[in-house]
Specification:
273 residues; alpha+beta; six-stranded mixed β-barrel; 29% helix; elongated
């Protein structure tokens, strides 16, 4: 089919919160008292002065009585993408949004790959198991049950991760039984000007945008073969291309943005049958 191949081709607002009268401190905030210094507040809440300044957009170490300070620091962590992960499922795990994850990692699409390392910023470096808005609106009796529910979710997640680890040896064994090679990979999409959307073997990619399909040189990888592609997953060799000769493959992705992000790279593949 006709297709195009793509190659890989924040100023803080200065502000400080002031209040006219004393008010009770809430979780994550501190009410500045007479005699307080930024260093004393930082020591009291086990954060650094720089973290405290960043969290409150402060440009100096000067603070004032009756000032409200945010003492919930933002920690950066790394999430390793697992098979089956999506940006939405990861955002739910850490209590952030998909757009935030994309901004922190410079992503232009929702496409992620197993093994990819994603930067996550979260208060105190903690993964959030429930939506803050739901937790705030819940009755006190439901909030009392939250620790038990969280423990149950953590246990379920641990069981799922263990099951996945147990499956990996079998998957590796299956891949090892086939013919492995290193190829140069690019990406293409069916949604481009002049693209028919139908592969050389008749697969309608426009009607089936989630299909795992690669274009190959049939003299190297027979059409119809099942091929495991590192970072892409198990695919079917169902297409060809004028520029796909020798140890070259072209992986199908849903959009032009995904194709541009994929770029051109060397990957290991295993022809499974």
């Amino acid at each position: 089919m006709k297709k195009f191949i793509f190659t890989l081709g924040t100023t803080a607002i200065l502000s400080a919160g002031f209040v006219g009268a004393a008010s009770a401190s809430t979780s994550g905030t501190y009410h500045v008292e007479k005699g307080d210094t930024l260093w004393k507040v930082a020591q009291k809440h086990s954060v650094s002065v720089d973290e405290l300044k960043d969290a409150n957009n402060l440009t100096s170490n000067i603070i004032y009585p009756n000032q409200e300070l945010n003492v919930a620091t933002i920690k950066e962590m790394t999430h390793k993408v697992q098979q089956g992960n999506t940006l939405w499922s990861i955002s739910q795990q850490y209590g952030v949004t998909v757009d935030q994850i994309k901004e922190w990692n410079g992503l232009k699409s929702d496409l992620i790959y197993p093994g990819e390392q994603l930067k996550i910023q979260s208060p105190n470096g903690q993964a959030q198991q429930s939506s803050p808005s739901v937790a705030q609106a819940a009755p006190e009796t439901q909030q009392a049950q939250a620790p038990a529910e969280q423990a149950q979710k953590e246990q379920q997640q641990a069981q799922a991760e263990q099951a996945q680890k147990e499956q990996q040896p079998a998957e590796s064994s299956q891949q090892a039984s086939g013919k492995s090679m290193t190829v140069e990979a690019t990406a293409y999409t069916a949604n481009c000007a002049g693209c028919s959307g139908t592969t050389a073997t008749g697969v309608d990619l426009k009607a089936n945008p989630n299909q795992k399909v690669i274009a190959v040189d049939p003299s190297v990888i027979p059409l119809g073969s099942k091929v495991y592609v590192e970072g892409y997953g198990e695919a079917v060799a169902a297409d060809t291309g004028g520029a796909i000769k020798g140890n070259r493959i072209d992986v199908f992705v849903p959009s032009e943005g995904d194709a541009q992000q994929f770029g051109r790279k060397s990957v290991k593949i295993t022809v499974m049958n």
